[in-house]
Amino acid sequence: MKIAFILDHNLMHYRIPFFNLLQVKGFEITVMHTGKNIDNTKFKQLNLKKINLGPFFYRKTPRLGAYDIVVYMQNIRYIDFILSCLNIFKKYKLVHWGIGVSSSNGLTVERDLIAKFRSCLENYADGIVYYSGFPVQFVKGKNKRKVFIANNTIENPLKIDCSQFNKDSFLFIGSLDNRKGLDVLVEGFREYIQSQSSPIIKKLFIIGDGTERDNIKKNIEKYQLEDSIILPGKIMTFEAKLPYFQRSIMTISPKQAGLSVLESFSFGVPFMTYKNAISGGEHLNIIHQENGVMLNNVSALEISNKLKDINASIESFRQLGHNAFHFYNNERSMEKMVQSFVDCFKQL
Question: 2-153+333-347 maps to which CATH number?
Fold first, then answer.
């Protein structure tokens, strides 16, 4: 069975294990994207030219009649995707893959017109695969029979339960941009560290790079926190990240939670974020006080108070890390994500 995945972005390294495993399952996978080809993949890659038309964009795709199934990212700004839905002459089966709702302001905020348009396009899909179970509540009528849940995840070849390692740090990992709430995290950590005489958890590692790096650095210098808040820069490999997860009692991203939730869980480190975080649904993996912490609001005071609670109850939060690892290992493996697609393809 020949299957084309048409991405609305560059092919990311974290997706390689997903497509490789689908290929191993017996499907002929071709991934079409606008970035540079990544070497040593089991599947085929095809580069597409991107054309921007205001808020919309277009990809110059080849003829798709040679494929049995075409999987499009469910992006309603993607002209090709819309045209594929409306193409009554297509011979391939069409699968939508995506979050299922708008995510730029949290999953619970979406304009009615956009939601109705997305729902209308789903009428033309042969299969629908969501990143999480959250959007299923909005699916109507016969479309419910088309839906499969492939919980978004990452493959960590070094997965290990680090919950029992010596802990002395908090951790942020990801791109440093203003939607993450890093200013609030730094301020909350400052209030926490300055209120403690001899804390067990005494450092905050902020791993990554981005537009907010200089602002973070200025605040660190302003509050004389150079010994407490460390900026190691961008770290890509699991091997290089491992020592930081071993030391960290909690990963924190106040306003946004993506695949770093699953990465943190795969190392046995719980995750803290806002209950309505900007997310593709990955924050829904967090069960409050079982494998992570959900903030009721994003404020320096609430973060500071949570950090104090963690420092005073290290063993309790080790247990959260242990739970997080087992949740990842048992419920969010790459095998489970791939199997959802296999089930979808076999039903078509």
Answer: 3.40.50.2000
